[in-house]
Amino acid sequence: MTKLTVNNEAVEYLLDPATPLLWALRDASNLTGAKYGCGTGACGACTVDVDGRAVRSCQVTIAEVEGSFVTTIEGLSRDRADPVQLAMLDGNVVQCGFCIPGMVMAASALIKARRDPSEADIRRAITNLCRCGIYPRLVEAIQKAARVARGDETIDAGTRPGIDPAEAARAVPALSPR
Q: Is 47 helix (H, G, I), strand (E, B) or coil?
């Protein structure tokens, strides 16, 4: 049994200790924000925060992170009010969205470590792949998120697009056959 704290809740996984963290999160905890992209750690779609560091969850086992504090995109901010999330929405960064949870988590860890990251810091820290090519807007959004996190700037959250998290798990009625 492997014990972790996931999104501020104690979790005990009854899985093989060699299970990749990604699969424990997705399959056992139903936290599907971290995506399986490549399985080699190259793409970053599976990035989560482990004890304040951006970690490719497909590349670490639950045994390797036992006793750690893990934050996934679901635990970052239930109402999407995290500075990185707000800045990405404000900067119209998101396109297809597949890579976004990993990028948000990597950017959040960066801002925790460096309150005023330079463009070079961002490019070094955010090595996640995005097939849509959002990188120029991403750098601007992360710099803005850092300013918001420091209190130097605000973002009018307004109405945020997407599904209300409380509604996301609601059952969808079955379609009747024709």
A: strand
